[in-house]
UniProtKB/TrEMBL annotation:
GO terms for molecular function: monosaccharide transmembrane transporter activity; symporter activity. Residues 8-460 form the Major facilitator superfamily (MFS) profile domain. Belongs to the major facilitator superfamily. Sugar transporter (TC 2.A.1.1) family. PROSITE patterns: MFS, SUGAR_TRANSPORT_1, SUGAR_TRANSPORT_2. InterPro entries: MFS_dom (IPR020846), MFS_STP/MST-like_plant (IPR044778), MFS_sugar_transport-like (IPR005828), MFS_trans_sf (IPR036259), STP/PLT_plant (IPR045262), Sugar/inositol_transpt (IPR003663), Sugar_transporter_CS (IPR005829). It comes from Zingiber officinale (Ginger). This is Major facilitator superfamily (MFS) profile domain-containing protein. The keyword Transmembrane applies. It is found in: Membrane. The chain crosses the membrane at residues 63-81, 93-113, 119-140, 152-170, 182-204, 266-290, 302-324, 331-355, 367-388, 409-430, 436-456. NCBIfam families: SP. Keywords: Membrane, Sugar transport, Symport, Transmembrane, Transmembrane helix, Transport.
Amino acid sequence: MTSFVLLACIMASSGGLIFGYDIGISGGVTSMDSFLEKFFPSVYAQQQADSSASQYCKFDSELLTLFTSSLYVAALLSSFAASRVTRVSGRKLSMLIGGMTFLAGSAINGAAVNVFMLILGRVLLGIGIGFANQSVPVYLSEMAPAKMRGTLNIGFQLMITVGIFAANLINYGTASIKGGWGWRVSLGLAAVPAIIMSVGALVLPDTPNSLLERGFAEEAKKMLQKIRGTDDIQEEYDDLIAASEEAKTVKSPWSNILQNKYRPQLIMAILIPFFQQLTGINVIMFYAPVLFKTIGFGGEASLASAVITGIVNVFATFVSIATVDRLGRRALFLQGGAQMLISQVVVGTLIGLKFGTSGEATELSKGYASIIVLFICVYVAAFAWSWGPLGWLVPSEIFPLEIRSAGQSITVSVNMFFTFIIAQVFLLALCHMKFGLFYFFGGWVVIMTAFIYFFLPETKNVPIEEIILVWKQHWFWGKFIADEDIHVGEHAFKNTSA
Ligand code: BGC
């Protein structure tokens, strides 16, 4: 690997910052009294008056969650527009659009004087995220040499976790600003990651795959030599040529992706982000302070616990960075799934034992509460080295070039849609399913882990334009792909038959 690639990938990963910052900032801001009083007075009044007995139903307000989740709807829709830009004009331009739109959104939000400005701001942020998440993972997977693709791609997830953590800390600081304008700082500071990303996008080179796809053959070859640090790139270049020839025959990636031969990838593009959200991770990311309050922590302690999970989230990501290209994607998925399941069952049981089904408020002893926090951390860590990074890495590396951009948009929109659903119904679900909610997500983890075991082929170390060969060899998916569908990897075939 060359330092040029490393730098480009670090820059591009900063796209994850804007996503993470937003995940981390909204929950804290919507719990600030001054913010609620100004924009959601009825919610504020209700919260002041509400001293409901049940621990499970403490924080129930759909208006507020609607504000939070409006962003995800915008991101969902914009990722389809981003798909076209990414394919026709390159990955770089999508990143730039993403950064600039996010910047505009953060300015409007920081300066908001009414709900309209708030929502407009959030829609712009959402568009920014749609473009970023559509282009950055693909960019990283195309830039990286096959043997380091996992490691470099996970830079994106690392930046997501850093963004979440930074946002938590910033909220912690701004919540105590006197005069009630702390929320402006929290929302306005989203401009910082937006600027980093925009500047990054301006100076980044485009990927050889994308250059070739758009007809710049010479530039593509030079870029490939540059990023691999050698002139000896003929095999990889041949694959790129074959892939881009194939891509040229495809007029509309959207109708194409429905063809039989893309069925395996299409199913993954839908199920992987769906499963990622059904792990229940965003219950912790959005509502950690609320959750900790619900199980009986005081205000300060709740926030502190949220900070602890934030740190665990960042550091556990390094485990996957270090191992994903050696142990492989499957090993991390399976181990992470098992660990998440165990901790979900433990947390659900501990909460259930304490509050039962009625949710009568009881004092939690310090020791008891710490054990709950501990197992929540065990859960977050498992997510952070499995479904977190792999939920973005795997989709970005499994599509052939001709449908890559469309496929990634599907992944982004499914992800955003279920993030939206979870954000929207969690508080209600907690109120009705009570501690059973943790078992509910645990049940999904069992399903997704079994799915990975049977249906996800290992993609570590395989050049991105040759992944089709992996599908072809799979016991189940192989039958969807005919021999004539394979145009890349001539030498790989020769190698195996020799
Ligand atoms: C997910 C987010 C989640 C984050 C937590 C990402 O991979 O897409 O929904 O909040 O990980 O670190």
